[in-house]
Write a structure and sequence with these properties.
The chain is of the alpha/beta class. It is built from 10 helices and 7 strands. Strands 3-2-4-1-5-6-7 form a 7-stranded parallel beta sheet, with helices on both faces.
Length: 224
């Protein structure tokens, strides 16, 4: 005689979790606006060059803007130590195994950072092209880095990340010939997903393209 398996009830809670987070994120955005603080959520895959790009960005803007950084990782403080060498305020956020930050985690980080009155706070999100794209952190703008070695087909594989980003930094352009990266095709694919996205090809290593990127960021922070 076979055993009758009781039907398992499945409750979909994803939508309500996102809805609550989106409301919380909007409240945080409004709070930051009232404090004249610009929060940039910086996302990418591991190894795309977030920290190197961030250090280069900080060194170009720290004399023009008051800046601070929140480094989010599952563990370690390696990146925070690197950022601290620039001389700006930095805090390390450990996510307890989570592959993303949400609005409440971001708020806790801002409180720990004591960022009120800071012109620009940059959140270096957990290295991942999936989860961080799904959770609104309350940031003023979302930025992502795509590195040339990852390939020009990433917009086809991870469309949401490109759709929710306000700016795309294509890093390591000094290696395009080595990896047969088609910049024009990549831009075309991204623009199909997000026609309004700003795109900056750079090399954080050589400095190529960094002026255009940091000038854009400065204007956004200043509301120009």
């Amino acid at each position: 005689m076979g055993i009758k398996v009781k039907e398992i009830r499945i409750l979909e809670i994803k939508e309500s979790i996102f809805e609550d987070n989106n409301k919380d994120a909007q409240r945080l955005r409004e709070q930051l606006k009232s404090e004249n603080t610009f929060l940039l959520n910086l996302m990418s895959s591991p190894g795309a060059g977030k920290t190197t790009t961030l250090v280069n960005t900080i060194n170009r803007l720290k004399d023009k803007l008051s800046m601070a950084v929140m480094e989010a990782d599952i563990d370690s403080d390696v990146d925070a130590r690197t950022i601290s060498e620039t001389g700006i305020k930095v805090i390390q956020l450990h996510t307890g195994g989570m592959c993303h930050l949400d609005a409440d985690m971001t708020r806790q980080g801002l409180q720990g950072l004591d960022a009120e009155g800071t012109d620009l706070v940059i959140l270096e999100n957990v290295g991942n092209l999936v989860c961080p794209a799904e959770f609104d952190t309350g940031a003023t703008k979302n930025a992502m880095i795509l590195s040339v070695p990852e390939g020009d087909d990433k917009p086809l594989k991870y469309p949401l990340m490109f759709q929710i980003s306000d700016v795309l930094i294509i890093n390591k352009i000094d290696t395009m010939e080595v990896f047969s990266f088609n910049l024009e095709l990549c831009v075309e694919r991204v623009k199909r997903l997000n026609p309004n996205i700003a795109i900056f090809p750079i090399s954080a290593k050589t400095g190529e393209g960094m002026d255009a990127w940091t000038e854009w960021l400065y204007r956004e922070v200043k509301g120009e």
